[in-house]
Amino acid sequence: MKYLVHALAISLFFVGCDKGGGSFSVLSESSTFSQEVTYTPRKLDVLFVVDNSGSMNNFQQQLVDNFSTFIDRFVTRGYDFRIAVTTTEAYRYPQLVRDNPGACFSFCEEARVQFRRGSVSNPYVIDKANYDLTTSAGKTLLKNDFIANAHMGADGSGDERAFSAFMAALNYTANANGTTSPNAGFHRPDAFLAIVMISDEEDFSQIGAGGFNESYSNPYLVPVAQYKTNLEAFTHGIAGTDFSYSTISILDQTCLNTLDPNNQSNPGAAIGRKIGIRYKQLADLTGGTKNSLCQPFDTSLDNISSSIEGQSDATFVLTKSPIVSSIRLIVDGLLVPQSATEGWTYTAATKTLKINGTVYKPVSGATIKLNYDPDLSAP
Q1: How open is the CA angle 54-60-65, to the nearest 5 degrees?
Q2: Which of 296, 311, 326 is the endpoint of a domain?
Q3: How far apart (Å, rounded) are the C-alpha atoms in residues 212 and 220?
Q4: Which of 51, 189, 253, 315 is the most buried (most CB within 10 A)?
Q5: Beta strand pairing call for 343-347 and 314-317
Q6: What's the pLDDT at 289?
Q7: Cα–Cα distance between 220 and 242 in angstroms, integer?
Q8: Is 66:60 a contact under the CB 8 Å cutoff?
Q9: Which residues of the chain have pLDDT under 50?
């Protein structure tokens, strides 16, 4: 990273890139400091959880048809991202083997918990580092790999347990034969984890192996809040700051009636589509977005990518307290105003400066200048 020092040198590292954080190191007590830096946004790890039951072919097709809406924002802004795909039946292998080996029957298949890929020529994990995204060919290859992985067919189980499924996939690090699994190391400790769920059903994750039971009164149904706790433990982070869960599902009765008119009189029936009540609850708990299957997929995916981008804040820490009124922050030649919505805010207790909103949010490689007068009377 090349630094251009205008007055006295300061060392700046963005805590958005590293949970450990960094700081300005002021080398002199002179009055004004100025520096140009290159901004590197936080890494992003995105796990798509796609319902692969019998009613999902059309929605899988809409997902892959509109994937460009989602990924183009990340490519344009230069994010360091990884993307993987799992299904709502990924829970079957690890959960049933662990809790009740005798109940596995034909479902003890390791491939169910592994990230999905279209063929041996497609990667389990789409890693930006493996594509030359400065070329149209590189961008096309990445999108084609995702299309192959995400359009896995609709022959999966109708016993959707999306929450158990994504936790199983994330925690799956070793193959049955002792070798490293393709899921191992997917989530990087310094990355924001975004889980994106696409389903026309509801989550009914339950404790233990259990049988098919789509009832909210099931005593073995795992509370939604438990999965927020599970993700906190997995990421060692905070909901909305280090991870989020977003859903594209049936949000209300109107959408349910549109997609499943034959089930209008009995929306709680065991067979048929359902409102994703638990999906909505987990999105609310983790700062994710709630998107309807009845709206265009490009709108939903744009909402989700915007949300993920917004959660990867540009934040940095000063070791010296500034005189707040003297702060001048310039991003790519634009003076950033002090604003809690579209601009910067300073928190004295933690000596942090944060860029809020999207108008002034830096892209990767953006030139950022900071000028301020240190408050020599402050600790």
Answers
A1: 155
A2: 311
A3: 12
A4: 51
A5: unpaired
A6: 93
A7: 29
A8: no
A9: 1-31, 35-36, 94-99, 101-102, 105-106, 265-270
Residue 101 lies in a domain: yes
- Quote the number of domains for the chain: 2
Locate 148 and state its tokens.
């192959």
Cβ atoms of 339 and 38 closer than 8 Å: no
Q: How far apart are CA 133 and CA 140, in angstroms?
A: 9
pLDDT value of residue 369: 83
pTM of the model as a whole? 0.75
**Quick one: which of 365, 364, 345 has its CA closest to 355?**
345
Q: Are residues 35 and 182 in the same domain?
A: no
CA angle 305, 249, 58 (to 5 degrees): 95
Residue 83, CA distances (Å) to 27, 156, 241 in order: 41, 21, 19
Domain boundary among 261, 293, 311: 311
Three-state SS sequence of 225-280? HHHHHHHHHHHCCCECCCEEEEEEECCCHHHHHHHCHHHCCCCCCCCCCCCCHHHH
Q: Which domain holds residue 198?
A: 43-311
Asked whether residue 107 falls in the same domain as residue 118, the answer is yes
